[in-house]
Design brief:
Strand content: over 45%
Helix content: under 10%
Distance between the termini: 40 Å
Order of helices and strands: EEEEEEEEEEE
Oligomer: single chain
Number of helices: 0
Largest sheet: 7 strands, mixed
Length: 115
């Protein structure tokens, strides 16, 4: 059974930092592209960042230079370091594992940026 479990969400002030983590089980983690997506109220889910099995990364323009994605193929985790957060970063953040055939999603973790 595949499970992706996100953690680390919460309330953070503008300009602050937050670190999200996603623990994966039930998949050959190292061969999957891992990603973080987000969905704000009334908006479509959008890509935040991805990291391939080889470690290549890609970011949405809106977070490039502020967020950093990383993975640990021993612990089967993927993390998202969020720095200099803005109110527009408020959303539910989802972890995804994808390969050429399958994709799996976590249940999401809420991030709220507010003073």
């Amino acid at each position: 059974q595949v499970q992706l479990v996100e953690s680390g969400g919460g309330l953070v002030q503008p300009g602050g930092s937050l670190r999200l983590s996603c623990a994966a089980s039930g998949i050959a983690f190292s061969i999957y592209t891992m990603g973080w997506y987000r969905q704000a109220p009334g908006k479509q889910r959008e890509l935040v960042a991805i990291i391939t099995s080889g470690g290549s990364t890609r970011y949405a323009d809106s977070v490039n230079g502020r967020f950093a994605i990383s993975r640990d193929n021993v612990k089967n985790t993927v993390s998202l370091q969020m720095n200099s957060v803005k109110p527009e970063d408020t959303a539910v953040y989802y972890c995804q594992a994808a390969n050429y055939k399958y994709d799996y999603w976590g249940q999401g973790t809420q991030v709220t940026v507010s003073s």
